[in-house]
Amino acid sequence: MMTELNNSEVTINTRKFDGKIHRSWKANLIEKKNSLLTFVGKFEKEVIHPKLGTIICGTISYEYYWLDRWHNIFLFKEPDGRFRNFYCNINMPPTFEKNVLNYIDLDIDILVWKDFSYEILDEDEFIENATFYKYPSKIKNKVYENVSILEKMLKNKDFPFDKETS
Q1: How many CB atoms lie within 10 A of CB 1?
Q2: Contact in structure between 68 and 44 (CB atoms under 8 Å)
Q3: What global pTM score does this model have?
Q4: pLDDT score recorded for residue 53
Q5: Cα separation, 47 vs 59, whole angstroms
Q6: Angle at 128 (CA atoms; ends 123, 134), nearest 5 degrees
Q7: Which one of 18, 108, 125, 139 is most buried, by most CB atoms within 10 A?
Q8: pLDDT at 4
Q9: How far apart, in Å, are the Cα atoms of 101 and each of 17, 59, 94, 98, 132?
Q10: How many CB atoms lie within 10 A of CB 56?
Q11: 30, 10 Cβ separation under 8 angstroms
Q12: For residue 161, what are the CA distances in angstroms to 16, 28, 30, 93?
């Protein structure tokens, strides 16, 4: 079942394990298909990231969230529409109600380039936060399980890694 939506503006909140908002931004919900919600947004200001480099204002972000999965995937495009990279977050399954999507970020990210080479980021942050927030072993296991799931999805070029990257 696919539902086309009228670009409903939503707020997306990434939260730490204690529930506090870590980052928040606006995006438009463009599609809902079963448990998958697809959003599109634009960077409103330049962001300098130690691994991604400079993400310029106007960079387009297609964001894929599954309400029943422990990860999400962003596809970044330059303002002119050229593919930039994928960025994957390991997180608890999100909730979506009253035009607000919330998810608990579990620290580990995967940065994927045009050639599908990738780097796993923030393992040190995960180890620190697992101790600080006392992540239960079930959560820690889900984090590592989802790193493996994303690696397999990348290898197989499963959706959304099947998108045009040239």
Answers
A1: 5
A2: no
A3: 0.92
A4: 87
A5: 10
A6: 115
A7: 108
A8: 45
A9: 15, 21, 7, 8, 25
A10: 13
A11: no
A12: 27, 21, 18, 20
Query: Rounded to whole angstroms, how far apart are CA atoms 26 and 44?
Result: 10
**Closest C-alpha to 37, from 14, 10, 17:** 10
Give the per-residue pLDDT at 166: 59
Residues 63 and 74 sit within 8 Å (Cβ to Cβ): yes
Conformation bin of residue 122: beta by default, left when phi > 0, alpha when psi is -120 to 50: left
Residue 133 — φ and ψ, nearest 5°? -90, -5
Amino acid at 96: F
> CA torsion sign, 15 to 13 to 155 to 139?
positive
Residue 30 makes CB contacts below 8 A (sequence gap 6+) with 5, 7, 38, 39, 40
Per-residue pLDDT of the chain (166 residues; tens, 9 = 90+): 334 455 689 999 999 999 999 999 999 999 999 999 999 999 988 888 888 888 999 999 999 999 999 999 999 999 999 999 999 999 999 999 999 999 999 999 999 999 999 999 999 999 999 999 999 999 999 999 999 999 999 999 999 999 777 5
Residue 79 CA to residue 99 CA, distance in Å, equals 26
